[in-house]
Amino acid sequence: MNYRQATSRTNHFSSVNQSGNHTSTGQLFQQLFSTYMQPSNNQSLYLNQPSPQQPGFAVGQLPYTHQTTPIPTMNEGDQKTSSFDELIQQAADKFNVDISLIKRVIQAESNFNPNAVSYAGASGLMQLMPATAKGLGVTDLFDPKQNIEGGVKYLKDMLNRYDGNVTLALAAYNAGPGNVDRHNGVPPFEETQKYIKKILG
């Protein structure tokens, strides 16, 4: 109930009281309190408000579905050869994740820099957050083998969570599964949307 509604109803109760109704102060308070506690159709300024969509990206085209998203074939120029290829292949085989997808994620996350650190504190090749890394058993974020294995394991967890939907798995990898679940699809965060487009094209 908003201020105008409360004021109007208070004035109404006051006029009734002055016109001869012998309602006590306690009864008047009880009536006001009961009225205030009734559900209101007015929306809160801060709760249950839809997040604004970012321009240039149709969030509605990326619903929370259970369809497998095809992984685009990487161009020869995208197939960045690095000293980490063997580690990437090992992790891909261990967790059954497409090696092209892993390479695209690493390129988007750190551009194959094992010492990369984001402003938020994500570190290493696959930009793992310390708390996430700890849960994955990673003790050294800057160890390429540990970072890749932990990152691929987490990516596989997200793929399993969203039934193989690569788009949602990437959104969860970037923004967290809680945000994907909350928005019932790709969150309307510009960073996350650009991240998905960068990887999937």
UniProtKB/TrEMBL annotation:
GO terms for molecular function: peptidoglycan lytic transglycosylase activity. It holds the Pfam family SLT. CDD domains: LT-like. One of its GO terms (cellular component) is membrane. This is Lytic transglycosylase domain-containing protein. Residues 1-24, 43-62 are annotated as: Disordered. Transmembrane segments: none annotated. InterPro entries: Lysozyme-like_dom_sf, Transglyc_AS, Transglycosylase_SLT_dom_1. Signal peptide: none annotated. It comes from Allobacillus saliphilus. SUPFAM superfamilies: Lysozyme-like.
